[in-house]
Input
Amino acid sequence: MPNKTFFWFFLPTGLAMILFIGLPIISTGIQSFYAQHDQVVKEVKKCDPFGCTVSIVVDNEETSKIREAKPLGKFNGFGTYTDRNHLAVDEIKKFWNETESFGAFVDQVTNLPFYKALIFTLTYCLFVTPNVLLLGFIIALSLNAVARKIRGPLIFGTILPMIVTPLVGSLVLFWMIDSQGIIGANIQNLMNDPYLSLKSSKTLTWITIIIYGIWHHSPFAFVVFYAALQTVPQEPIEAAIIDGASRFQRIKHIVLPHIYPVVTFVALISLMDNFRVFEPIIGFSAEGSAQSLSWLIYDNLVNEEVILFGSAAATSMMTIIGIAILLAPVLIRTWKEFKTAR
Amino acid sequence: MDYGLDTKSTRLKTFNTIFIITWLLIACFPFIWTFWGSFKVRADFFSRSDWWYAISAFNTLIETGGQFTTNAYTQAWTEGEFWKASKNTIIVTVFVVSISLFLGTLGAYALSRSTEKYAFWILMAALIFRAMPHITLVSGYLFPFFELQIWGILPTTIVVLVAINQPFTLWLLYSFFKTVPKELDESALIDGCSYFQAFRHIIMPVMWPGVITAGLFSLMLAYNDFTVTALLLNQENHTMVPKIQSYLGTNQHEGNLMWAVSAVVSATAPLFMLVMFFQRQVISGLTAGAVKG
Output
């Protein structure tokens, strides 16, 4: 296709992506270097028959004037990145000097909002992704062994958790697991502890969200693996059966190597999706004990008084860097393949 | 696995059956339970005293005189203004699907027919864009949108959702266009068609399965989106998913939590029916990128 034709065909979609994905990333980058204005204060002298008092009040008029003149806020450089709510450089230095054992230091650091969120996000990715791959593969193997006639409805039932939006999916589970729901109430009865509830324990909350993640993402892995299983050639498997290979050996030495590229694809996609975990935290109302990077950004953006653009943008930039680190191996590999292919 | 030589022991078969039944129960029961519970009153579905009330409908009988009640639905749709949210969802979904299909087919066709190096780099860039968490993009939008005073209205959200959806649509349609033989449009070009005519009259007619799949995915994205719609729309223009969230926030209202339950059911039912209808397309879409590498 000539370059000129290509240009006109690609222009609309290219423009949409540049304007609404490329530029916002740049806009986020710029915003992250600014912080909202401080409030302007003025001294007010108030006199009454008993004497004069000077009090300091917020000058709303002046404040809004400054905000209008410079809506982006004041330039803050890397200040937002290093403040307490983000990388917390000063606090970490302080903890390093003050705490006695390394354990106490780690304890202190993981209580800082950014690190807390980072640890939750990574834990979530670390537990959900492998389990999704495993469960998806087992379901695919298992459904593949069922008679063809009834597979249709079974597949429909299997993919339900995936097609609902995460908020709805987590709500539906939350209403069952909550202390007033069917599962929660039964667990309370079983454990004989009327105060046992999701909200009371951080560990329980994390486990629930991770289980939710596996429940929500496994169907995707299943669908891809199931389709890949249909393309596994039959002859080597029949040969292996004649040679006396067990079922497990057949899966390990023939099926898995055949679908290996698909496994990396699913792992990559689910890692990308898990890294942005956010809606389940709202669905499970777990803000208290589990916060993710995406949730931190959301929290800044829905702030009641003043939207913390700078703070949200700084977290966003660091999330984007995180994504880049996750994607780097794949991109480097693709680039190498592309170079050798030429 | 269904291999001619493969004989399965009964033990394995039983184990397999039990596993599938257990999994289906885990996957489907929450939805069935929510559907059942949406016809009860709050005191039953979220019972403080006994979870069995949700089945025996103890309080529902007292409060409404029947085993089942549709109060939650009527209240959410009228008083809770869920009708408005669903109207907004329909508008957003229709526009997002048609615009992103229009842009996506053009772009993906060009990518699939280009032999230049930049086509590869564009696809890579699309992959990176696909990986961006939506909330990071939203944090980039909010400030400019406030300044331009286009925040809160439906058209802005539609354009944003179209753009966010493009990388995935491009990849999906690209892999479908690749399966259409090049000879088909080349012969049309020799006969004197322009590229656009070849695209319009030769390629599109054989592309319908791919277009339907891509359309379904755009639809699911627009219909299911929470991050963008919750932050870029004002209260008036909220679509269904942010509306459901707003029912959760206020706990003063006795009915509100049940509104959320009935709203969840109302929002999920059309989606399930759609997927039941187009199941094959959904699965072919999910695997299109994967199986072909």
